[in-house]
């Protein structure tokens, strides 16, 4: 047992003595845990965003990790409900297995089993990855998409839309369309 500890100490000393400078505790921790360790982690969160006491959206997540640079990670899923500004009723619902918010580009990216239901239009979008630019309102993906309405199912690859003009969206490469009776 003492031999093992001695060998471990010698190996550690040899590893950390290589190079011109010694590492601080903080640097060693960053190496051990990775550079992008969260500033804080919150569990089972639910936040409501309002403007003038009118609900805009509600976000739920099992885990939220926030970093010093303003980035956020939601590794165990995200659930976002958006409300109609006039009626305060739910207008859309987004769920995904994970998500990332990148502060410098104000971009949300949701991954894996992404489902976005638009209750006003009666549409459901399914894809693997969906990007949303908070500044411009652009919503897009280059992955396969499936849009289901009451009368039609359209599949394709890639989609472009804008939150401010939800009636106009474009599927870049339509691969199929089925009319439902």
UniProtKB/TrEMBL annotation:
Signal sequence, start to end: none
Gene Ontology MF: a single term: glycolipid transfer activity
GO cellular component: outer membrane-bounded periplasmic space; plasma membrane
InterPro entries named in the record: LipoPS_assembly_LptC-rel, LPS_export_LptC, LptC
Keyword Cell membrane: yes
Pfam family, one: LptC
Keyword terms of this UniProt record: Cell inner membrane, Cell membrane, Membrane, Transmembrane, Transmembrane helix
UniProt cross-references to PROSITE patterns, sorted A to Z: PROKAR_LIPOPROTEIN (PS51257)
Keyword Cell inner membrane carried by entry: yes
Membrane-spanning segments: none
Protein name: LPS export ABC transporter periplasmic protein LptC
Species of provenance: Flammeovirga yaeyamensis
């Amino acid at each position: 047992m003492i031999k093992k500890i001695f060998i471990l100490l010698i190996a550690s000393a040899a590893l950390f003595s290589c190079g011109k400078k010694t590492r601080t505790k903080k640097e060693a921790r960053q190496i051990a845990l990775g550079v992008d360790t969260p500033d804080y982690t919150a569990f089972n969160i639910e936040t409501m965003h309002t403007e003038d006491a009118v609900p805009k959206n509600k976000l739920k997540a099992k885990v939220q990790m926030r970093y010093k640079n303003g980035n956020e990670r939601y590794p165990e899923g995200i659930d976002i409900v958006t409300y109609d500004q006039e009626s305060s009723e739910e207008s859309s619902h987004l769920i995904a297995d994970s998500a990332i918010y990148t502060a410098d580009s104000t971009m949300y990216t949701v991954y894996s089993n992404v489902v976005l239901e638009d209750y006003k239009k009666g549409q459901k979008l399914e894809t693997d990855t969906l990007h949303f630019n908070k500044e411009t309102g652009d919503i897009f993906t280059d992955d396969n998409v499936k849009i289901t309405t009451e009368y039609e199912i359209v599949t394709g690859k890639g989609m472009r839309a804008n939150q401010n003009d939800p009636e106009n969206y474009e599927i870049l490469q339509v691969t199929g369309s089925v009319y439902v009776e």
